[in-house]
Amino acid sequence: MKIQRVDQSTTFKRTVEVGKEKEQKIVESIIKEVRDNGDDALFRYTRELDGAELTQLKVEPTELEEAYQHIEPNVIEAIREAIHRIRDFHQRQVTQSWMTTKADGVMLGQKVTPLDRVGVYVPGGKAAYPSSIMMNIIPAQVAGVGDIAMVSPVQKDGKLPAGVLVTANELGVKEIYKVGGAQAVAALAYGTETIAPVDKITGPGNIYVALAKRAVYGVVDIDMIAGPSDITVLADETAIPSHVAADLLSQAEHDELATAILVTDSEELAEEVSKQVELQLSSLPKEAIARASIEGQGKIYVTKDLEESIDTVNQIAPEHLEIIVQNPMEQLGKIRHAGAIFLGPHTTEPIGDYFAGPNHVLPTEGTARFSSPLSVDDFVKKSSVLSYSKEALLAQADAITTLARLEGLEAHARAVEIRLGDEEND
């Protein structure tokens, strides 16, 4: 891996441009086609892009039953345990409606209402991850969303991967559709004969999915425009080089554009981790992908001390941050920007991907500076509630009309004053 000493001239990549003009035009064309032709467009794109000839879009119960025949019992048990842990974590995020009353007759509050209908995109191909299903659907269910539609691209045999179907069924998903890509996003946003439109779309996908989500934002809400995965490991001389290297590679194998970074104040650790990365790369099944990631985006930043290391981490604002230093809890308060923080030498990042409970849908590409992980809050909306008594209106009328006229909004002021006249005539 490339080793670089941090100084005042060091810059940290934040965002990658999502899409070029060519891809954007393709996505615009696909969205228009789906809006105009509905299911027919979905069947055609599935045939042309996925190589599968379908006669129906919705997964039937027989397909779910068949999927269980291809999954070992211990895998099903692991899925169920992960669902339990993830649900338990997200139930602690639930926000309740609230009301407060004041002595002057004012009642104020906030009403929390789940979204009516949500669409979840599940990637296919080399990124058909059952864990993504759990992380997107469980917080929506905990929030109380009534209808959840799941879409995912089919394999050439016209089926979805068994692991995807079993996970969705274990979660109780009733609507599973065999369609992927920008066309699936368009179907969720605008609806077709088979797929009813949703209020929000969540879930990761390729560049065409990301561009489609961006294009339909405003018609529906979306979770985020996710870039390639990234990890930063903050480590000192106490870290074990082989462990750090393994954690860096755990993200590098995701994608050729994934980013794996080590930030350390130990030159010796930097050298040893670099050697370990090369050693471990050669035995990885996805060596080509991981090597492209490490050679393209991988970095080791060497700092003068731990404080500079922490400052560097905050500038990177990583999606995943591992803190493998002496007394990691002491450093937690100094971290300002990170999607998920993994403390200590035994808390490797894959724990968060699958099993611990926190959501693994995280802000990428430095957007942890202003974004948060997917949560129950993403599947509810909040309405302000106001109620004024006669006495409260009379007491505050002068201040309200003064501010209205300061802004040149006479009708606002008169809407208050007309009630004052009514009170004087009572």
TrEMBL record:
A single MF term (Gene Ontology): histidinol dehydrogenase activity
Pfam family, one: Histidinol_dh
Co-factor remark: Binds 1 zinc ion per subunit.
Alphabetized SUPFAM superfamilies for the sequence: ALDH-like
Group of enzyme by EC: oxidoreductase
InterPro entries: Ald_DH/histidinol_DH, Histidinol_DH_CS, Histidinol_DH_monofunct, Hstdl_DH
Amino-acid positions noted as binding NAD(+) in the UniProt annotation, renumbered to this chain: Y121, Q183, N206
Protein family (similarity comment): Belongs to the histidinol dehydrogenase family.
Protein name: Histidinol dehydrogenase
Lineage, top ranks: Bacteria, Bacillati, Bacillota, Bacilli, Bacillales
